[in-house]
Amino acid sequence: DVQLVESGGGSVQAGGSLRLACTASGFTFDERDMSWYRQAPGNECELVSSLSNEGVIYYADSLKGRFTFSRDNAKDTVYVQMNTLTSEDTALYYCATLDAAAFIYWGQGTQVTVS
């Protein structure tokens, strides 16, 4: 079974940093694009970034310069390094992947709260 497990969320003060990780299992990791989404209270779910094996294929413009995305295929893990956090970054952060049938799998999410 496909599993995506996010970690690294927490509460930080504005200007602080967090590093989120998403570890995958149940599929061949280096054959899949991986994505990060976030959903803030009262807002729609927002695509933050997508990564292929070649690198970042999508990156929300509002995050450029503050968020860095990477993947480690040896660890079946994708990361997002978040710097200079603001209250607008408060959200539940999810990783996701599509299978060959375009079915999307989600992790359970990790909460980021910036005060």
Structure annotation, total helices: 0
Low-confidence stretches: none
Structural class: mainly beta
> Oligomer, anyone?
single chain
Give the tally of β-strands. 11
Strand content: over 45%
Give me the Rg, rounded.
Answer: 13 Å
What share of residues is helical? under 10%
The outline comes out as globular
For the sheet with most strands, the description reads: 7 strands, mixed
Mean pLDDT: 94
What is the string of helix and strand elements?
EEEEEEEEEEE
Measured distance between first and last alpha carbons: 37 Å
Outline the fold blueprint.
Layout: E1 3-7, E2 10-12, E3 18-25, E4 34-39, E5 46-52, E6 55-59, E7 67-72, E8 77-82, E9 91-98, E10 104-106, E11 110-114
Parallel strand pairs: 2-11
Antiparallel strand pairs: 1-3, 3-8, 4-5, 4-9, 5-6, 7-8, 9-10, 9-11
Describe this structure as you would to a colleague.
The protein is mostly beta strands. It is built from no helices and eleven strands. The strands form two sheets. Strands 2, 4, 5, 6, 9, 10 and 11 form a seven-stranded mixed β-sheet that branches. A four-stranded antiparallel β-sheet has the order 1-3-8-7, with no helix packed on it. The radius of gyration is 13 Å and the shape is globular.
